[in-house]
Amino acid sequence: MMSISKPDKPKKTARLEVRVTEEYKKNIETAAYLRGQNMTEYVLDILTEAANKTIRQHKILELTKKDIHSFVDVLLNPPTPTEKAMNDAQWYKQTINHNQK
After folding, report:
1. pTM score, two decimals?
2. How far apart are alpha carbons 35 and 83 in whole angstroms?
3. Mean pLDDT, 10 residues at a time, over the chain (101 residues)?
């Protein structure tokens, strides 16, 4: 029978250290316990969530700024209408004028 091996987990070689007050540590221990996690798992989950949220918000702001610049550029420098757009505008004007009579 062939066994299926689990993919290798990346080795954890980086280290984070944080000095906190006893009160902070007790709060973190309590929160970790309530989640069924040890402190390391809890802190990593919380930090990862916060980091991902910060990165997402930054990307949204970046896109928003880029989109605003693109929008303003199109307003200030509109493209030349295509023939289809011109025909559609003409049809619209005729339809509106016809319906208002």
Report:
1. 0.55
2. 63
3. 69 90 97 97 96 92 83 92 94 82 61
